[in-house]
Amino acid sequence: MKRNMFSKFAGSLLALALVFAASSAFAKVATVDIPVDSQMYAQAPQPLTPSQCAQCHSYQFGALKEKGGKHRFACQECHKAFHAYNPNKGNYAEIMPKCSQCHTDIHGPANKDCATCHTNPHTPRVVKVTERLTNSCATCHQEEKAELVQFPSKHSLLACSKCHHTRHGYKPSCQECHKPHYKGQEYSSCLGCHSVHKPKKVTYKSNEPAQTCGSCHTKVYGKWTKTVSKHSKVNCATCHHDKHGYIPKCEECHKAPHPAGILKHYPRCLDCHLDVHELPGMGGKK
């Protein structure tokens, strides 16, 4: 009887010892002992500099460097949370900066979907020509739209993206579509006469080369270049000033070239001087 009781007691002690040993094993929190370095955490770390961020985010740094525009400042000005993305939470949109942190609705309340056009905040001014963008050109470019409507031309029939393709702000050369008036003509000379959104409204300065005029007015230009008169030294735009198609009066330059008696009988210069582009040419009334 006593032996049985002792056996039971010994068995209970053995069970308790096994339970204690097992619980002690699972209570361990590490398999190695790493000493605490309190000095490491004595000071708060300084924010990373953009060059330090670039050690991992080289693409974003390069984009900001080359085409970042006014976004070239410390990364922390936009990014407040670092390495906080959790795929289980799907919190990417939550931790990414919002345009509204700095920008108001600069394109109006109907255009709040910034990322549709400004697809990369690290290159904010590189805007691809998308359907969303081309449908909204007149929101900002109201003057250009008004000119296309007020001064109809073949340009008025084209979508903005036909000329301003590839990206927002792209200004094409006229010669992408049009042949030059003469060989070797520079693109800049086109804009001296033609405003791109009202190309048929031709204006020019008095020093516009006569060769430009001669590309269309070939017959007159041919006469003018061969005349022995002083008119050969006068640029076309000097006489035909103000606007295309302007026909000057001789009196603008020649006040009273003949005695009063002659002018009385022949008040119109072209009655005698038949062709101003091929002087001297003299004729008379019959």
From TrEMBL:
The keyword Signal applies. The keyword DNA repair does not apply. Residues 1-27 form the signal peptide. Keywords: Signal. This is Cytochrome C. It comes from Geomesophilobacter sediminis.
